[in-house]
Amino acid sequence: MVTEREFLDGYDPRAYPAVAVTVDVVTLTIRDGVLHVLLVERGEQPFAGRLALPGGFVREETLDEAALRELAEETGILPRVHLEQLTTFGDPGRDPRMRVVSVAYLAFAPRLPDPNVGGDAAAARWVPVGDATGLAFDHDRVLAAGLERARAKLEYTPLATAFVDDEFTIAQLRGVYTAVWGEEPHAGNFHRKVLSVPGFVEDTGATTSRGGERGGPRSRLYRAGGARILHPALLRPNPQEQ
Amino acid sequence: MVTEREFLDGYDPRAYPAVAVTVDVVTLTIRDGVLHVLLVERGEQPFAGRLALPGGFVREETLDEAALRELAEETGILPRVHLEQLTTFGDPGRDPRMRVVSVAYLAFAPRLPDPNVGGDAAAARWVPVGDATGLAFDHDRVLAAGLERARAKLEYTPLATAFVDDEFTIAQLRGVYTAVWGEEPHAGNFHRKVLSVPGFVEDTGATTSRGGERGGPRSRLYRAGGARILHPALLRPNPQEQ
DNA sequence: TACCGTTCTTCTCAGTTCGAGTTTATCTCA
DNA sequence: TGAGATAAACTCGAACTGAGAAGAACGGTA
């Protein structure tokens, strides 16, 4: 039994059962209107051949820095990504070989390039979240936590702007909500709401150079406003129980 | 440099710089209408004599179990507490002696007994959150994260019912919001809202045996309903920027 | 015992927001 | 040139919110 007191007295930490601390990153982006997650294929046991979230050991760095580094190693240069801590998973037995405590992170980015830029990440690829099941370790749970967090944060933060380019149309923003929520908001009400929430978007004055592929007028271009939270919130039609 | 590949090949984990994993618990309760947090006084360096959040090493148990165990050691038997994971803090240097990654937990409980029941927790005590500054390590940050989480969760979950007894009055529930938000909701509107949100509370049919200390009619008694989220939410007057 | 102040509970009412649908103008493609 | 599609604005009833007030029940005190 190890008490805090022993620890504070300078008890040699190497005498304890070793614990490894890693970060796992749930990276989401939208490609062709479908929400995708970045996964890597495992080469070794356990779970060889299975898909897993990218991740790795925490070094002499903050947890945030570790997550950013792992992400950069998988995807090459990172444009502007939103990164936030999600949940920490540490059940004994989640890795069959030793105690591993994993700090999960959630990242959002606008249409990232195909991975395979980094070193040991040749097997990394984007997978539609609907197809991302049967992942290694407890990564199904981690991904589920990330998705639910993303869905909830769209409601009360301007997070959707992290999925689109610097300048975007209201329709593109609506596409983010559609992809993440799996349900298309009412176009007219969405438009009214986005423009009425203070600080959500700001008008650039410019418009797109042409209309939509199937017709329609040119649409106005906006950029992200300064708000950190949306007030009032943009609620989804059917909030999840849980 | 330690890569994931080396780890997966069975690299000896004891060769790594040791990392300790602990849990710290932000335990909140309301006493005499004031929000209190459970703190312990540190006996040793560093931060000897300073107040800190209770916490300790994670053993052969899940993180949730570790948090519950630490809480039980500080407060004795636990009636019904709500416990949830908060954030993980792992900056290098947050503990001056070695790398410590702390998984912070948030606990809510109805008027807990005075601590000093457990073993090494003779110095544990309830402190009004307004007085809980200058804590050891980075516990000021941890506490701040816990408070903001608590404030936000009162809006969209029935968490307030975790602060009161099994049977409670609307006024007692309103007292929870007042203590946590630092602002008293409009009594009439609060009453209407609580009764209108499905699953927040259910009527017991009973009333209190006498009126308030300074007069007023007996009030009806309710118990917590089955809802996990409040819809529509009970928004605070002035949501925080951040 | 009668009264006063307090509190619970319900009600009122105007302003705001929301969901659903419609209208108008603009644009692409055939 | 016409058909279909879309952006943006508008309409309207329902629902919700904030602020205040009314009525009833109760504890303490004169």
From TrEMBL, chains A, B:
List the Pfam families.
Answer: NUDIX, WHD_NrtR
Query: Can you say what this protein is called?
Result: NUDIX hydrolase
Does the keyword field hold Hydrolase? yes
**Does the entry feature the keyword Hydrolase, yes or no?**
yes
Matches recorded under InterPro entries: NUDIX_hydrolase-like_dom_sf (IPR015797), NUDIX_hydrolase_CS (IPR020084), NUDIX_hydrolase_dom (IPR000086), WH-like_DNA-bd_sf (IPR036388), WH_DNA-bd_sf (IPR036390), WHD_NrtR (IPR054105)
Record GO terms (molecular function): hydrolase activity
The signal sequence is none
Q: Please give the organism.
A: Catellatospora bangladeshensis
